[in-house]
Design goal:
Elements lengths: L2 H36 L6 H14 L5 H23 L4 H12 L9 E5 L5 H9 L4 E5 L2 H9 L5 E8 L3 E2 L1 H9 L3 E9 L3 E4 L10 E4 L1 H6 L1 H5 L5 E4 L3 H11 L4 E5 L1 H7 L2 E4 L9 E8 L10 E7 L6 H12 L2 E9 L7 E8 L5 H13 L2 E11 L1
Parallel strand pairs: 1-2, 1-3, 5-15, 7-8, 7-9
Antiparallel strand pairs: 3-4, 3-11, 5-11, 6-9, 6-10, 12-14, 12-15, 13-14
Helix pairs in contact: 1-3, 2-3, 3-12, 12-13
């Protein structure tokens, strides 16, 4: 048989598969109705394990694993269709609906905002892009920002979460596991690092350079060209500028923003020394209460998945089934739980979409435990 004839055979089989798939989903809907009347759960793990074993045994040895994958996807589709068919709304969805209705239509203009670092920090720059006229309070650590939100000292906080070249800010992800908060907005700030010094300092005079560890990692190529210079990590890039300024020394420098040069009376000895020109840091704006503003089209969640093969696959398969794009997937170890991880997801879907509603109603059955972090839009 030639290629055209083989494709005709495939098309005939596909026609049968489509028809049988429709018939299977119709029966799945009827099962959902029975479960709704009897109060039985949609997801029955033992039944699915038994069925997967059964179909794998019916297949040839070569096709056994392929058959398991196929039926795993069929089960995901079936559960999703059953949940949609019976239209059960979860407590989380009701909470989200209340938040949408109670959140003001206009984003706050001049609130009190907690930022890590000192004046001139990149968090301050991001804060002033997110809010029109914020009252900024500075804290020494990321944890102190979370505490300020939880204790009601400030209604909002700004935190860096990832960089396009240096990757995730792991400390913030770890703190996200421990604290209760809601993401209300995000912003991607273009970051340009500059070598700032006290007036009169020459490049060959520099013996020490201060900066935040992320900024240091983002300027690796430039720093390698300065042999013998001691690189010292500090808590914040703006703090590094402040330290250089207060020292009065002409053998130290800071990697920091250009805004810090004017702020701390420093000179810019070298501009844009980061490894890549398109260097951006993503900041999240968090609040204590769940606030969902108009236009929210991104959602963040955290999940603890069963420590079993295929657990993550099942979540991704459900998201794929719903047509929801995953823009970020991060895993972090859970404190005091050996070899167990919390998975962080950034999802792209409007809060008004049918897919979003369905996902919010199905999160319980997808994982061992989950944490809804909020739905929001990103400032451009």
């Amino acid at each position: 048989m030639d290629l055209a004839e083989l494709r005709q055979e495939i098309d005939k089989i596909d026609d049968s598969l489509v028809s049988l798939f429709g018939a299977r989903m119709d029966i799945a809907a009827k099962i959902a109705e029975v479960k709704k009347q009897t109060g039985a759960p949609i997801f029955v793990p033992a039944r699915e394990r038994e069925k997967l074993q059964e179909v794998a045994q019916k297949a040839s040895p070569e096709m056994a694993n392929y058959t398991r994958v196929l039926y795993s996807m069929l089960f995901e589709l079936s559960r999703s269709y059953q949940s949609k068919h019976i239209g059960t709304l979860s407590p989380l969805y009701h909470r989200i609906t209340q938040a949408i209705e109670s959140t003001p239509k206009l984003f706050p203009q001049a609130p009190m905002v907690a930022c890590q670092g000192v004046e001139g920090a990149y968090s301050q720059i991001a804060c002033e892009k997110i809010f029109k006229n914020p009252f900024i309070f500075y804290f020494k650590t990321f944890e102190a920002v979370f505490d300020a939100i939880e204790q009601g000292m400030c209604p909002y906080g700004i935190l860096p979460i990832e960089n396009s070249t240096a990757g995730s800010v792991n400390k913030v992800y770890d703190l996200m596991i421990q604290h209760n908060f809601s993401i209300v907005r995000t912003f991607r700030l273009k970051v340009d690092h500059n070598l700032l010094v006290n007036p009169g300092t020459r490049l060959e005079d520099i013996k020490e350079i201060y900066s935040h560890e992320q900024a240091i990692s983002q300027c690796g190529d430039f720093l390698q060209g300065l042999p013998g210079v001691n690189i010292i990590p500090v808590g914040n890039t703006a703090l590094a500028s402040e330290m250089v300024s207060k020292s009065g020394r002409k053998d130290v420098a800071a990697l920091s923003s250009r805004a810090c040069a004017e702020l701390y009376g420093l000179e810019c000895l070298a501009s844009n020394v980061q490894d890549k020109g398109n260097n951006r840091t993503r900041f999240i704006c968090i609040s204590k209460n769940l606030e969902i503003y108009p236009g929210a089209d991104k959602t963040s969640i955290m999940m603890i998945l069963n420590h079993k093969p295929g657990a993550l696959y099942k979540v991704l398969a459900r998201l794929y089934t719903l047509g929801i794009n995953v823009t970020k997937l991060e895993s972090r170890p859970i404190p005091d739980r050996e070899f167990e991880f919390m998975f962080y997801f950034d999802l792209e879907t409007s809060i008004y979409s049918e897919e979003y509603i369905q996902l919010m109603c199905e999160l319980d059955e997808l994982c061992e435990e989950f944490k809804y972090l909020g739905s929001y839009s990103e400032v451009v």
